Amino acid sequence: MENLLKSSFVAAAILCIGAHLSLAQALDPAVQSKVDAMTKEIQAWAAAPAIVDAVKAYNAAPPADAASMTQEKWKTTPILDPFVRGFTKNPAADFLKGKKTDATAEAFLSAADGRFFWVYSGKRSSFPQKNRMRTR
User: Which distant-in-sequence residues (6+ apart) come within 8 Å of 18 by Cβ?
Assistant: First the structure.
């Protein structure tokens, strides 16, 4: 289970930081080297106790508000709402914020049911519902 969580986090993070590279046929060796280095760095993030503990805790007891959250409700929920602030005021959030660089546009943690339970980005992301891919 822990390896699955790490793999999911790493795969999602790589997609977020390298989405623009997917159109390229082959990467320049210098760029590939940077992508490889970032992949290793993100794998280390996924193994960090703050991340592993947060994923385990969320999976064991997801907040009741998460089950009732919809895209429409998310769009109208104020950013200072306690539910929203809960995404940014916890040890996993602090850990990921500390890792933010110009190369990372967004990071998120995904629960076993497919919901993202912590997100940072330059703009407010959509709230992913159970077993549903996130949309912008």
Answer: 35, 38
User: Among the listed ranges 1-5, 74-78, 87-91, which one has the minimum average pLDDT value?
Assistant: 1-5
Q: Which of 96, 97, 111, 95 is nearest to 63 (CA)?
A: 111
pTM of the model: 0.65
pLDDT digits (tens, 9 = 90+) for 6-49: 555 555 565 555 555 555 568 889 999 998 998 999 999 999 99
Alpha helix ranges (H) inside 19-130: 29-47, 49-60, 64-68, 71-76, 82-85, 91-99
Q: How far apart are CA 71 and CA 39, in angstroms?
A: 31
- pLDDT value, residue 131: 44
Domain spans in the chain, listed from the N-terminal domain onward: 2-121
Output 84-91 pairs: Cβ under 8 A, ≥24 positions apart. 87/117, 87/118, 87/119, 88/118, 88/120, 90/54, 90/118, 91/50, 91/53, 91/54
Q: How far is Cα 57 from Cα 67, in angstroms, rounded to an integer?
A: 16
